[in-house]
C-alpha cells in the first residue's frame, strides 16, 4: 500500500517531463516545460470528483505535498468537501487576523456621529493612539488577552489613573466592535485586565477655584482692557466653559442671548440642542469692549491667527501668582448659587450647561429656564461689580 501511494521520488520529480504524473492516492503533479509545476489532489466526495490545489512545485516539495494530501484525504473520508473546509478555515484565519489598529480606526469611524464635532478634536481616539496602539496596534485583535492589556497599562495605571481609565474604556469598545464584526475575541479581556491591575490608588484632583467671596475683587482688578482680561471677565460673568467662550463668534449673539452650537457643548446628551446663554448687562458691556479686537467674526482672536489658546487665560493667572484655574470660576459661581441664593437645583445646573435627569424626565422637560437664568445671571453680575448695598455686604467689601 505504501508503494502504491508513493510512486515518485524527490529526485525523480525534478526530471519529469511536462505533463501529468501520479504519485498515487489521488496526488498528482502537473509539470510544465520550465521544470516547475503544481500539486493537485483528486478526491471523490458524495460521488463527485474534486480537484484541490496543494501549491506550486518546487516551492512545495514532494514530502510536503504528501503530508497535505494525507490531511485532506482524511477530510474527504469523513464525507466532507476538503475544498470547502479549507476555504472556511481560510476565512476564519483572515477574520481573526484583523489588527487592533485597524479595528480601533473602524470603531472610531462608526462612533463619530456620537462625538462632539465628529471627534475632530481627537479626544476620543487619543488615549488609544498614545497608550494602547504603540504596543498592541500591530497584534491581531483575536490574540490580545488580559496579560497584554495589563502589561500595556501598568506603567500609567496609578500615576495617570484617569488617562489609563479612558484608554481601558476605549480598548473595551474596540474589542466589542471586533466581536460585532464576527471576530473571535475575548470580550471580557479588559475586565480581567482590571482585576490583574488592581484598584487604582490615584485620587481625583479638583480644579483649583477661587472662593466666591474673593471673585469680585479679582474681577474688578482686571481693568487694563486686554483681550485676555476681557475673555476672563466674560468667562466669569457667564460661567461658561473656556472652549465655547474662546470660539465665540459674533453671529452667535442676538440681542441679550448668546447661542452656543450643540457640537461645542461638552457632555450634552442631545447633540441637536443648542445652548442659550442669557447675557447680563455687564456681559454685554464686556462684549462691546472686546469687539474692536475681533477678527473674522471671532470675538477673542489670537495674536496671529485663530482664537486665543486654551492656556492664555491660565498663564495670565500664573503671572498673578494664582494657583486657581479659569475653569474653577464655574465652581465659584455654583458655590455662590448654593450658599447665597435659594435657586432651584435644575436652574442652577442649567446655568452651567449640565444635563441632569433620566431619559424619560428629559423627554418631558423641554424648558431651559431662560428667564429664571437671566435674572440669576444679572444678580451674579451685580455682585461681581458690587452695584448694590446687598452685594457689598455679602462679599465683605464695605471695607
Can you walk me through this structure?
- 47% of the residues lie in helices and 10% in strands.
- It is an alpha+beta fold.
- The strands form two sheets. It has a four-stranded antiparallel sheet with strand order 1-2-3-4, with helices on one face. Strands 5-6-7 form a three-stranded antiparallel sheet.
- The protein has three domains: 2-93, Double Stranded RNA Binding Domain; 100-197, Orthogonal Bundle (DNA polymerase, domain 1), CATH 1.10.150; 212-394, Orthogonal Bundle (hpI Integrase, Chain A).
- The protein starts with a helix and ends in a 5-residue tail after the last helix.
- Residues 267-271 and 360-364 have low confidence and may be disordered.
- α5 crosses α9 (161-180) and α8 (146-153) crosses α10.
- It is elongated.
- The chain has helices at 2-5, 10-15, 62-77, 82-95, 100-111, 126-131, 133-136, 146-153, 161-180, 189-197, 215-221, 227-238, 242-246, 281-290, 312-319, 328-340, 345-351, 359-364, 370-384, 389-394, and strands spanning 19-24, 27-31, 37-45, 48-57, 253-254, 257-260, 275-278.
